[in-house]
Amino acid sequence: MISDLEDTIVAQASVPGAAVRGIVRLSGPKAFEIVNQLFHNPDPSQKFQSGSLRIQGLESPLPALVLRSNQPNTYTGQDLVEIHLIGCPPVVDALLAEILNRGARSANPGEFTLRGFLNGKRDLTQSEAVLAVIEARDSVQLKQALNQMAGGVSTPLVQMREDLLNLLADVEAGLDFSEEDIEFIDRKDLLLRLGKALAQLTNLRRQLEDRAVEGRMFRVALVGKPNAGKSSLFNALAGDQAAIVSPVAGTTRDYVTRSIQLSGQKIELIDTAGWMRTHTEIDEQAQHLGRERTGEAELILECIESTRYAGETSEVSSRHIRILTKCDLHPGPEGWIRTSSETFFGLAELQARIVRQATDFFHPALASSLSRCRHHVDRSILHLRNAHNSVLFEDPAEILAAEVRLALDQLGEMTGAIYTEDLLGRIFSRFCVGK
């Protein structure tokens, strides 16, 4: 259910738990009034004000910074206040209780972003991207989410919807004057305008597809110095002798790949040439190919022989982790993924880590939004094709108008120009309370 926009809502906007700073956010008609009641010597004319709060149950004034923002130029489109104070959970809870006692109510999940959508601050795809920014697990996901939040998906639709609305108006005007000898739009113009819209939507569909990962295998590259146990570990994970194993360093001159399945996830394993100085053109080519395939991988496993561990950290990044090999010879330090291709020690832990990373990869932060957008774009393309065919086969203009209207409805549902409470509930219920 869409809540009453006349309510003043409050929530903790910072991460729960002890911290240097806690943030409490209010939005609504009484936001300024409530904060002014709590703030010692309030100055409503000041956007930023440092001072103290008086909270029932706390004997001493509470140092705080208050930030006031006037509607409509705020995140929610309403008067908005943020209170920054010490991030002590009991203190933050006391402040929330005091604000609730003075007439505010607790915000529902995603209600701040929902109010911004309802007040026209952002469309539905941009609102979904807010959650994607919060949930982004790497720089690629963050970049995609920020692009969508900035209008990267919906902005191309603005002019297109305007053109289709004008086209529909011309078609329906022709229907109103069907008994008169007046032509508002000729057949050639109709085909050109419908063709332009189809081309724009097809291009948008391609962009959405480029952001998806369905059908791809999760690529895992094994890298490291020569004779670090990469090929043996590769064979253990692959379940066969796909790579040549030799005590002689530098045996792997080319990269070797093998496709496997782990817990239902499709994985492509890549064994690369060991990192070494090159002395021949063949060595240089092997190193180049290894770097290329490593750059394409979603997960890099840097293999370090346990007997040669020199105090490195196990996590380089979320995409690059270090693991110890040959741990049957030396156990290695705690806190690492330790493996042995001879005894299969640690193999289950490594496989679990690969599966976890692959699962995250195939469920990106924007997955639900992209799926919803692709559905509406596909339906809109279908209706525009039907409209195009109706012009080619000289069907009644009523059919053309109906198909264009259905295409516009799909684009409206995509951006939120047309919505239902059920749809908004499904989208915004996934947000945390403070957003």
From TrEMBL:
Known function: Exhibits a very high intrinsic GTPase hydrolysis rate. Involved in the addition of a carboxymethylaminomethyl (cmnm) group at the wobble position (U34) of certain tRNAs, forming tRNA-cmnm(5)s(2)U34.
Binding site for K(+): 227, 246, 248, 251
UniProt KW Metal-binding keyword: yes
Pfam families: MMR_HSR1, MnmE_helical, TrmE_N
A molecular function (GO) term: GTP binding
Residue span(s) of domain MnmE helical: 124-432
Similarity annotation: Belongs to the TRAFAC class TrmE-Era-EngA-EngB-Septin-like GTPase superfamily. TrmE GTPase family.
EC number(s) recorded for this UniProt protein: 3.6.-.-
Binding site for (6S)-5-formyl-5,6,7,8-tetrahydrofolate: 25, 82, 121, 435
Subunit comment: Homodimer. Heterotetramer of two MnmE and two MnmG subunits.
Names of the cofactor(s): K(+)
Domain GTP-binding protein TrmE N-terminal span(s) in chain numbering: 8-121
Official protein name in the record: tRNA modification GTPase MnmE
Residues the record lists as binding Mg(2+): 231, 252
Annotated CDD domains: TrmE_N
